[in-house]
Amino acid sequence: MEDNIKLGTKAFDKMMFTLAEPVTEENHAKYHFENYEMMEISPKIWVLPVYMTADDDFTLFFIITKIATGETVMAFSQGDLESDGDFNLSQPMNTGAGLNLLEKHDQTRAEAALAYLEQLEKADEGTWRIVAENEED
Asked: Which end of the chain has fewer CB within 10 Å, C or N?
């Protein structure tokens, strides 16, 4: 990642983490974050909790799926528990935007999630890139 793009900055909102290979039933367990494991919620769409506590309505998940470019990305989505008991996920956001949102809510947890992605990058499991303006529409 470029040196001048850091967690908490507006420029970081444009960062997307892409995985080197798609997540499958065979490899999903290797992508656990702390005590959380990935779950497939729809064909080829995986979620991984990043922030979820019993005493806080704020929840945040990695959403892992293939996008139009063919890349497998680790985006973020907020969770929302409806009054009828249904649980919904928000429109996905760039990895950097999700981490910045989490940093405003819980800086320590945001730093842990960023460290997790940096470990994946060091293991050649993924890489960061800047999202072009036309990709966000």
From this structure: C
Please enumerate in sequence order all residues whose Cβ is within 8 A of that of 58, keeping only pairs 6 or more positions apart, or say none: 51, 78, 105
- Cα-Cα-Cα-Cα dihedral sign, residues 39, 41, 47, 51: negative
- The reply to whether 134 falls in a domain is no
Position 137 scores a pLDDT of: 46
For residue 48, being part of any structural domain is answered with yes
- Domain total in the chain: 1
Question: How far apart (Å, rounded) are the C-alpha atoms in residues 27 and 69?
Answer: 22
Name which of 9, 40, 6 is nearest 25 in CA terms: 40
Residue ranges making up the domain that contains 61 = 27-123
CB atoms within 10 A of CB 54: 4
Q: Which residues of the chain have pLDDT under 70?
A: 1-3, 83, 85, 134-137
- Separation CA 87–CA 123 (nearest Å): 33
Instruction: Please indicate, yes or no, if residue 128 is contained in any of the structural domains.
Output: no
- Confidence (pLDDT) at 2: 57
- pLDDT the model gives residue 57: 87
